[in-house]
Write a structure and sequence with these properties.
The structure is a homodimer. By secondary structure, the first copy, chain A, is α/β, with parallel strands linked by helices. The first copy, chain A, has two domains: about 140 residues, Aspartate Aminotransferase, domain 1; about 240 residues, 3-Layer(aba) Sandwich (Aspartate Aminotransferase, domain 2). Chain A has 13 helices and twelve strands. In chain A, the strands form three sheets. A seven-stranded mixed β-sheet of chain A has the order 2-8-7-6-5-3-4, sandwiched between helices. In chain A, strand 5, helix 6 and strand 6 form a beta-alpha-beta unit. In chain A, helix 1 packs antiparallel against helix 8, helix 2 packs parallel to helix 8 and helix 9 packs parallel to helix 13. Chains A and B meet through helix 1, helix 2, helix 3, helix 4 and helix 8 of A and helix 1, helix 2, helix 3, helix 4 and helix 8 of B.
Amino acid sequence: MAAIYLDNSATTPPYREVLELIGRVQEETYGNPSSMHSKGLDAERLIGEARRQVAAFFNGRESEIFFTSGGTEANNLAIKGAAYRNRRRGSHLVTSFIEHPSVLNCFRFLEQEGFSVSYLPVDEQGLIDPGALKSLVGKNTILVSIMHVNSEVGSIQPLAETGQIIREANPDVLFHVDAVQSFARLPLEVKKWQADLVSCSAHKIHGPRGAGCLWVKEGTLLQPLLHGGGQEREMRPGTENTAAIAGFGLAARQGEGRLAQTAGQLRNLKLIFYRELRNSGTRFIVNGPAPENGAPHIINISFPGLKAEVLLHSLEERGIYVSAGSACHSRRPEPSHVLEAIGLSGRRLESALRFSFSVFNTEQEIITAAAETAQVVRDLSSMIS
Amino acid sequence: MAAIYLDNSATTPPYREVLELIGRVQEETYGNPSSMHSKGLDAERLIGEARRQVAAFFNGRESEIFFTSGGTEANNLAIKGAAYRNRRRGSHLVTSFIEHPSVLNCFRFLEQEGFSVSYLPVDEQGLIDPGALKSLVGKNTILVSIMHVNSEVGSIQPLAETGQIIREANPDVLFHVDAVQSFARLPLEVKKWQADLVSCSAHKIHGPRGAGCLWVKEGTLLQPLLHGGGQEREMRPGTENTAAIAGFGLAARQGEGRLAQTAGQLRNLKLIFYRELRNSGTRFIVNGPAPENGAPHIINISFPGLKAEVLLHSLEERGIYVSAGSACHSRRPEPSHVLEAIGLSGRRLESALRFSFSVFNTEQEIITAAAETAQVVRDLSSMIS
């Protein structure tokens, strides 16, 4: 039984080319990039190349890319780095209720540190109301952090409108966007968003674990999280993970220049899955954006009356890997804060599964997965009725 | 011309077995360890195994090992985590002048944050005087951080005596040891040291880049540096780098149970190098501990009258890779703070090279490297005299 992996919002299997590159770099270019000899310079050159490849996604300069150990660190650096660096200017921060835990828990922590935080609600599509920022953002506000694509329901926030309203309310506010779920799947229109800080992660785009980046608009100052040997222009010291960074660069390059194609391919898979499931006569409700809207690779579905965990394991027995709630909670059996925020409760909340697709999935896999899901729902429903 | 890599204190080439394991894990066990399905559980199992392998070095419990992205992060977590967590109890911190930049620069930062820091001097062997702590450590002291082995000159600090004096002066003080240079080369006698926190890094022991750990004695509380999805029991959130952690575990296992053998092998290489260089009639001075003392894998040598950078590049032309000062300064051409702290200046400071050995080096390589060094020194000396 071949595995059908539909948990690509949690993590993605790496490209074969990326694995090969990582193996080669670890073996041949093992020098410390800070070493003065050629083994150091060779490593530094690889990192420079990766920086160019990642910068291309932002239409940005290489000097605006700071490599981190991943998305969580990039979000922490952006949020705490901006808050601490600007605490003399103000103490008010804004975010939404449906951010990733690595964003939300930074803000919870900053509240303990004396900052005040406003949390924007979302509608049942998982969308914030940018207009709400008009009255919220004031003189004392120093940072607004809003994700691009929600990892659980796939809502795409109206970032251009959001950025415009922030600028009109207070041009000095820093605007951070967590783009971990959208990087290499949707365009990162940092200029249109008027963003200052954007976080990304390699392992969500078929790159390696252990690499991410924060895009920092030229001239934006942050307090670093780590202190040390001065790497990444003192913004992120520590011996660079050359292989992971090179792999990140290559994974980015695989997606570069074909964003529209990738998004089209993913959306096609999602719509096939939705159509097949609907045609099977299965009773289900889509949570968040309608299938034709939202992120191309995510669909969140409830099967009222059934338990998500039981569904997940039944699908797993058939070789299909999906997610119940988010994988980012270290398997704590808590109801998803995102699904609660979009208004779900009771049977609909308990029975929600996330199916997330990648360019590695084939149409046939998706058709099989929909048929198996329909079968599992039928089997389980017959057991309880 | 085969390369002779003698910059093993900067970073080490990985074991072949580690590279193979990393490749396999990235390909086969790519699931997010937080995912509820078996692809998550498989990844979590690998991390648990690595945790046992690393814990073995501390004769510690698995629950005392917290994986980080590397040594810099482990040092930052230990120092800032201890300082912020205990700031209500006191604001005085102690360290030495010869710590790694990832330790020293944490303390410089904490000074700006309102903490006061005492910096211990060292003698010309690179050793602190533990007795000096008697009067320094007081009621207001919350943390002492002293490295085990110095990365530039190889001095081994008297940690048992240091720990004892700290405990007598104030039993509530946390004692952190940066063991990045000694891990898997010398025993980590955490009980004898009476240590609370010990930092390690994978890439210094023929493991991968992107993994390190902080050993945290049962019951010791720290403020985390990162906030997020709760991984590593909320001490270090972020999707775990399964492959790097597994590789770290395997690299640790390679060295386990044969510490004395490894140390003997390394010391033998160092003494051969020293003897060959001395027998060649080359004029040089050993900096820091005498060759028969100090860490088994590090020797720091000045060639007065010559410039370290010129020596380094001349050796590189002959396929020999060494370090001038430390590699951790991102190639900034600054005089080494360690060599200055042990009293070097002028011609001796300018001409210092570090030769650092690993179990991958053969005796023949070392004999060749010594002969080539002697030749380079002769050639360069004849050019300037």
